[in-house]
């Protein structure tokens, strides 16, 4: 997923280490682990799966999306768009699959839906992390991202990090299945006190209504959602701390663990789009900058 930029610290280049947007295993109690779970970068059997051949024969690939701007959503005219669907159109066309078909679902249902074959690939800007890497396999990231908060105008509580949220006893919210749950818990916030809402729009509404002091999301999404708000603003993007170190996330496409052949073919085309600069041209209309381009790998972010 992806949010706000601007004066967002996106010039910070991530150190090469395991990735973020990762949820604690205990988040399963919140019903979010399904969305959070994921892949181990190898885990394949046989010849790497037959899905690519079937997609070429059918001429269409089903994309699991979560209705999150700017990652993957249906626009006001009823058209599928977003950074991941537009990238999917480019990559799958190069793979011999001409059409993409959206299958909207909640973020927390993306991984269960993928593994139950409701769709063929997750195209929702999903962060790659160790928990998710146990359930699906990821392509290499097509972007990297920092975190940001939605707060009341003027940021009256001075919230700029998860540690600030804990120290100032702020009422905290984030989205279903979001890695930000883990970051808050790691900073010392009690998990049972976190308000879980469906998405960044619900988070904005909660902040504007005074039900919470802060909503945590990706830098890109928070920036975009507050643009028309008279009551709320997005904070400067920052890297959360994971085990005491600054952490930068990467978002990628997810595949069933048996479909290594499709994942590898996808990676080959993705690398070419990165090399030619076409990837940035695809992502730029959705608010991404060159600072969000990355050479991180799924293997790194899965912690292997």
Automatic annotation (TrEMBL):
Source organism, top-level taxon: Bacteria
Pfam families given in the database record: SBP_bac_3 (PF00497)
Domain Solute-binding protein family 3/N-terminal: residue ranges: 60-290
GO terms of molecular function: ectoine binding
PROSITE patterns per record: TAT (PS51318)
Assigned keywords, A-Z: Signal
GO biological process, one term: ectoine transmembrane transport
PANTHER family on file: ARGININE-BINDING EXTRACELLULAR PROTEIN ARTP (PTHR35936:SF17), MEMBRANE-BOUND LYTIC MUREIN TRANSGLYCOSYLASE F (PTHR35936)
Name this protein carries in UniProt: Polar amino acid transport system substrate-binding protein
Protein source organism: Streptomyces murinus
Lineage of origin: Bacteria, Bacillati, Actinomycetota, Actinomycetes, Kitasatosporales
